[in-house]
TrEMBL record:
Protein name in the entry: Tetraspanin
Keyword terms of this UniProt record: Glycoprotein, Membrane, Transmembrane, Transmembrane helix
Similarity comment: family membership: Belongs to the tetraspanin (TM4SF) family.
Keyword flag Mitochondrion: no
Database matches in Gene3D superfamilies: Tetraspanin
Domain of life: Eukaryota
Topology relative to the membrane: Multi-pass membrane protein
The keyword Transmembrane helix belongs to this UniProt entry's keyword annotation: yes
Organism annotation: Pedionomus torquatus
InterPro entries: Tetraspanin/Peripherin, Tetraspanin_animals, Tetraspanin_CS, Tetraspanin_EC2_sf
PROSITE patterns: TM4_1 (PS00421)
Length: 247
């Protein structure tokens, strides 16, 4: 009976580690896609040091889970106590790090309000100044998502015009409609847009557009994160039970 129980635990351990292995492969794939994606998101990531760092953290986490899942599978099948202990310690560290990140995200969620982004935009935005990281990032966001400001073009009424601007307009160039939503896309009518003709402008605010775009994915990501934490927790339990059962 004890041998049957140990055998069952071994194969359950293998199964959970296989899921961790697949999860690491998915994170690795998403991290690589975010960095090399040619559709415009790469510009946003490269312009924002926080997102740039986050993409590489995702890559590192994916590679680590990929490796640990592989080691866990090997440790379970071969009944190797050293591999199982190594796996348990690293999964525990990753579990605690993910839990801490989730708690911090919940605590600082109030910094992601519409009012916060509007205040920051009016304070730091420098229009077409691509040497400024904040402005370049916002321009990339507005071009990629075909939106304007946080709430709409009226957000830029308090933003000073550039002294060399050829057209007097409070609407930045990034809010103008393009045939293709990328920096290389041709303007539908740039001059009409900058002179204030609304039908050539993207009038919807980025906050609403991005929220609608990612609403489904946020719930999916949350469910995935809970699933990953649960899998890691069960994998640690199985690893410790298998470790104690091996003679």
């Amino acid at each position: 009976m004890e041998g049957d129980c140990l055998s069952c635990m071994k194969y359950l351990m293998f199964l959970f580690n296989f899921f961790i292995f697949l999860g690491g492969a998915c994170l690795l794939g998403v991290g690589i896609w975010v960095i090399v994606d040619p559709t415009g998101f790469r510009e946003i990531v490269a312009a924002n040091p926080l997102l740039f760092t986050g993409a590489y953290i995702m890559l590192a986490m994916g590679a680590m889970l990929f490796l640990l899942g592989f080691l866990g599978c090997c440790g379970a099948i071969r009944e190797n106590k050293c591999l199982l202990l190594f796996f348990f310690m690293f999964i525990l560290l990753i579990f605690l790090a993910e839990l801490s990140a989730a708690i911090l995200a919940f605590i600082f969620r109030e910094n992601l309000t519409r009012e916060f982004f509007t205040k920051e935009l009016k304070k730091h935005y420098l229009r077409n100044n691509d040497t400024d990281v904040f402005s370049s990032t916002w321009n990339s966001v507005m071009i990629t998502f075909a939106c304007c400001g946080v709430n709409g073009p009226e957000d830029f009424e308090a933003v000073p015009l550039l002294p060399y601007s050829p057209v007097e307009s409070t609407t930045p160039e990034a809010c103008c409609q393009r045939e293709l939503q990328s920096r290389e896309g041709v303007f539908v009518n740039r001059e009409a847009c900058l002179t204030g003709i609304e039908r050539f402008q993207n009038r919807q605010g980025c906050y609403t557009v991005i929220l609608n775009s990612f609403e489904t994915y946020v719930y999916l990501a949350g469910a995935l994160a809970i699933g990953v934490l649960a899998i890691e927790l069960f994998a640690m339990i199985f690893a410790m039970c298998l470790f104690r059962g091996i003679q």
